[in-house]
């Protein structure tokens, strides 16, 4: 099993609904976020191109955060999801410094927090909160090993990119272009 | 033209607008760790060579301070932790790929060894020292017989401690400025140079000071080579490392790095050490004090600048 997510940059309008849904679903403390929207403007007027990306932890297959964690708190879980065990985390910040996507932060309670792909929902057969609320249905989630999952189907059909693949992280967040 | 903005207003503390997860604690610890590693290396090396009487400061006096240096460093490390009550989790796991895990275990091993070494030599600093309890006296007597194996263990562990402070940073490929394998050797050499400087400051014998000034000169030369080599590597590397090195080659760290770290921390002490060895009248404290200052500042600059350097996408 290999969980992954695809975000259609042609459909995303940057409404930030995914960000709010995540904050609500996961009780993210005020002032923090586990996902965010990046808006890229390319070119000069009048030749402009706009891209919106809903970004979060890339649940990398070769995660620098798992590698550098001194206690094993950061680990690979079912389906390759990268999770943090709260009572193993010492809050040293090594994983935060190691993440090229800046996807992690220190929870006010001291441990490191990040996107979990809403594993608690996925286990119940639901979609992650961000995917479920998206008003333009621009996000796809599922198992890459299953050729019939939403994400497998869409990345077979469309062109996509990943973020900084040259960092060697093998990210599992696909941006459809 | 390309403009990238986080439009959902991400402002995670210590991450945005720019990474600052490690503040003064980490560079201060890296300095103390390197300094202790340097002192312990010289202590064990010259003990094994049988030169305890020739270099009493290096072998006996200076190492007395190392448990304090390492202890203070550990306090800083503890202060840096955000989930403090779980710090013991470091010692329920050994992660072979994590330099921080290596460091934690190395500290666990070298801290007691340096304490034993200090206890064995405490009478150099306090001639009237009395251990009071017979148990301690007996233990000290037993340990006296194991000085050589302790010195060997200390020498190996001090090199690991010194080099790991650099490897810790170089293992982060997310921060291009740190992501160079030169950083391990560079921090090791710099740590040994600060160790030699501390020995010079503490030493009362001119001959010992001159020996360590000569050692320090060699270390400074290696350091300069490694620094230049590091920037050559950056310049010839990928765009992110070219950008990272640009902070030091025209960017905001240029003046403070080349004037204070390289100038005052390496070149001026080197010149002063040469003058002193030629018996010119120079106050001998100045050069080692500058070396210590340069070593401390170098770690602060690397820690902060490294967190500023990043991948672009």
Automatic annotation (TrEMBL), chain A:
- State the SUPFAM superfamilies in the record: 4Fe-4S ferredoxins (SSF54862)
Q: Which UniProt keywords apply?
A: 4Fe-4S, Iron, Iron-sulfur, Metal-binding
Chain ranges of the 4Fe-4S ferredoxin-type domain = 3-32, 48-79, 80-109
Q: Do the record's keywords include Phosphoprotein?
A: no
Taken from the record, one Pfam family name reads Fer4_11
Endoplasmic reticulum keyword on record: no
TM ranges: none
InterPro entries, from UniProt?
A: 4Fe4S_Fe-S-bd, 4Fe4S_Fe_S_CS, ET_IronSulfur_Cluster-Binding
Q: What protein name applies here?
A: 4Fe-4S dicluster domain-containing protein
Annotated organism of origin: Carboxylicivirga marina
TrEMBL record, chain B:
- InterPro entries from the entry? Electron_transfer_protein, NrfD-like
Parts of the chain that traverse the membrane: 26-48, 60-79, 99-120, 150-170, 182-203, 215-234, 246-272, 284-305
Provide this UniProt record's keywords sorted from A to Z.
Answer: Cell membrane, Membrane, Transmembrane, Transmembrane helix
Record's family? Belongs to the NrfD family.
Membrane in keyword set: yes
Q: What is this protein called?
A: Polysulfide reductase NrfD
**Gene field:** nrfD
Cellular localization per UniProt: Cell membrane
Q: What is the lineage of its organism?
A: Bacteria, Pseudomonadati, Bacteroidota, Bacteroidia, Marinilabiliales
Regarding the membrane, this protein is recorded as: Multi-pass membrane protein
Q: What is the species of this protein?
A: Carboxylicivirga marina
Q: What would be one Pfam family of this protein?
A: NrfD
Keyword Kinase recorded: no
């Amino acid at each position: 099993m290999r969980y992954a997510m695809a975000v259609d940059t042609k459909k995303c309008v940057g409404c930030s609904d995914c960000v709010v849904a995540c904050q609500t679903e996961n009780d993210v403390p005020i002032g923090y976020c586990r996902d965010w929207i990046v808006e890229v403007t390319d070119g000069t007027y009048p030749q402009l191109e706009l891209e919106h990306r809903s970004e979060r932890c890339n649940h990398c297959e070769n995660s620098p955060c798992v590698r550098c964690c001194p206690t094993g708190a950061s680990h690979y879980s079912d389906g390759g999801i990268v999770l943090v065990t709260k009572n193993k985390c010492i809050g040293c910040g090594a994983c935060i410094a190691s993440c090229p996507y800046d996807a992690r932060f220190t929870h006010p309670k001291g441990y490191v927090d990040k996107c979990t792909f809403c594993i608690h929902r996925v286990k119940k057969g639901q979609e992650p909160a961000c995917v479920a609320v998206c008003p333009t249905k621009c996000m796809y989630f599922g198992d890459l090993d299953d050729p019939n999952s939403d994400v497998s189907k869409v990345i077979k059909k469309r062109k996509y990119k990943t973020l900084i693949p040259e960092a060697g992280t093998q990210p599992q967040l696909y941006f459809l272009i | 033209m390309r403009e990238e903005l986080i439009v959902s207003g991400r402002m995670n503390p210590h991450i945005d607008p720019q990474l600052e997860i490690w503040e003064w604690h980490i560079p201060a610890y890296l300095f103390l760790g390197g300094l202790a590693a340097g002192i312990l290396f010289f202590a064990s090396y010259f003990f094994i060579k049988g030169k305890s009487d020739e270099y009493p400061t290096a072998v006996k006096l200076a190492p007395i301070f190392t448990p304090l240096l390492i202890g203070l460093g550990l306090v800083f490390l503890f202060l840096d932790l955000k989930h403090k009550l779980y710090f013991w989790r470091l010692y329920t796991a050994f992660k072979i790929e994590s330099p921080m895990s290596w460091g934690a275990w190395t500290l666990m091993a070298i801290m007691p060894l340096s304490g034993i070494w200090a206890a064995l030599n405490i009478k150099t600093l306090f001639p009237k020292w009395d251990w009071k309890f017979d148990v301690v006296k007996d233990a000290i007597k037993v340990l006296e017989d194991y000085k050589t194996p302790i010195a060997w263990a200390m020498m190996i562990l001090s090199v690991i401690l010194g080099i790991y402070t650099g490897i810790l940073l170089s293992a982060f490929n997310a921060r291009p400025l740190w992501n160079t394998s030169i950083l391990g050797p560079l921090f090791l050499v710099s740590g040994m140079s600060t160790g030699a400087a501390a020995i010079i400051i503490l030493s009362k014998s001119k001959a010992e000071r001159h020996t360590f000034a000569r050692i320090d000169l060699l270390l400074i030369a290696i350091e300069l080579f490694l620094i230049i080599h590091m920037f050559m590597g950056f310049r010839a590397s990928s765009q992110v490392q070219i950008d990272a090195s640009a902070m030091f080659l025209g960017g905001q760290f240029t003046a403070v790095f080349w004037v204070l770290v390289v100038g005052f921390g390496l070149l001026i002490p080197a010149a002063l050490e040469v003058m002193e060895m030629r018996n010119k009248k120079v106050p001998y404290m100045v050069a080692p004090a500058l070396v210590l200052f340069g070593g401390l500042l170098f770690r602060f600059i690397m820690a902060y600048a490294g967190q500023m350097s990043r991948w672009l996408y």
